Amino acid sequence: QVQLVESGGGLVQAGGSLRLSCAASGFTFSMYAMSWYRQAPGKERELVATITSPGITNYADSVKGRFTISRDNAKNTLYLQMNSLKAEDTAVYYCKFGVTYWGKGTLVTVSS
After folding, report:
1. CA 112 – CA 109 distance, rounded (Å)
2. What's the CA gap between 107 and 55, in Å, rounded?
3. How many CB atoms lie within 10 A of CB 55?
């Protein structure tokens, strides 16, 4: 049974940093691409970053240079390091595997 559990969200001031984690289980984590998405209040869910099995990364233009996606295959954990946070980064952040597997999300609130 696939499980994705996000953690690390919270309240931070603009310009600050947070690191999100996503603990994965129920599948061979190292073999698959993983993604972070976010959904701000009143907006559609959007892709933030993706990392492939060998570690190739891709980012939304809005977070390039500020966010870093990474993975630790030994720990079956996906990370999102978020620096220079802005008020517009406020959202629920989700990790995703495959087409249909989502975590429940972790809330990030950036105060301006």
Report:
1. 10
2. 26
3. 10
Please tell me the distance from the alpha carbon of residue 13 to that of residue 99, in angstroms, as a whole number.
Answer: 34
Phi, psi of 108 (to 5 degrees): -115, 125
Report the candidate in 108, 31, 18 with the shortest Cα–Cα distance to residue 68.
18
d(C-alpha 41, C-alpha 38), whole Å = 10
pLDDT of residue 31: 96
CA distances from 53 to 42, 61, 90, 93 (A): 32, 22, 28, 21
pLDDT at 60 over 90: yes
Cα–Cα distance measured from residue 60 to residue 44, given in angstroms and rounded to the nearest whole number: 14
- Give the tens place of pLDDT for each residue, 64-89: 999 999 999 999 999 999 999 999 99
